[in-house]
Design goal:
This protein has one domain: 3-Layer(aba) Sandwich (Aminopeptidase), CATH 3.40.630.30. Helices cover 34% and strands 33% of the residues. The protein is built from four helices and seven strands; from the N terminus they run E-H-H-E-E-E-H-E-H-E-E. Helix 1 (11-28) packs across helix 2. The protein is globular and about 40 Å long. The model is unreliable at 123-149 (pLDDT under 50).
């Protein structure tokens, strides 16, 4: 398995990510997914150089895309996840951790704060209470938990 930054010139990876965009969005969505918006979000992360993919046996098994956001009350920007996806058959393994480490390393190199949130699947069906694991890559240890009701 390899983790690499998505290259806008790599048409094969680009096409595969576009094909996955709706599936990735539907796992998180509380409302019907607009396929054009889902694909546009993935496209923007690739175009901006803020998308990493995990490949195994020439297949995409995970991806994480970031967006750059202005601080509300300060100068500068930080990165936050736009999507974080691991193939259902590959979850609870090393892929998600390796994707987060790639983002952490990129954030450190770029001197950016990066926030990645993961919605716990066991809380998804309740729709009223979500367990969110907030990890500020490079600043807060993995496993830090915040609850949003």
């Amino acid at each position: 398995m390899i983790i690499e930054k998505a290259d806008p010139e790599d048409q094969e990876t680009f096409a595969r990510l576009m094909d996955l965009s709706v599936e990735m969005a539907e796992e998180m969505a509380l409302v019907p997914v607009n396929p054009e918006k889902a694909a546009g979000k993935v496209y923007d992360t690739i175009r901006n150089g803020l998308c990493w993919v995990a490949k195994s046996n020439d297949r995409i098994v995970g991806a994480i895309g970031l967006k750059e956001i202005d601080f509300d009350y300060a100068d500068g920007t930080f990165w936050a996840d736009s999507f974080f996806y691991v193939d259902r058959a590959e979850r609870f393994g090393a892929i998600g951790v390796k994707l987060i480490r790639a983002v952490r390393d990129a954030a450190k190199e770029a001197e950016k704060i990066c926030i990645v949130a993961r919605v716990r699947e066991d809380q998804r069906e309740k729709r009223s209470e979500f367990g969110i694991y907030a990890e500020i890559a490079g600043f807060t240890p993995f496993g830090h938990m915040a609850r949003i009701a």
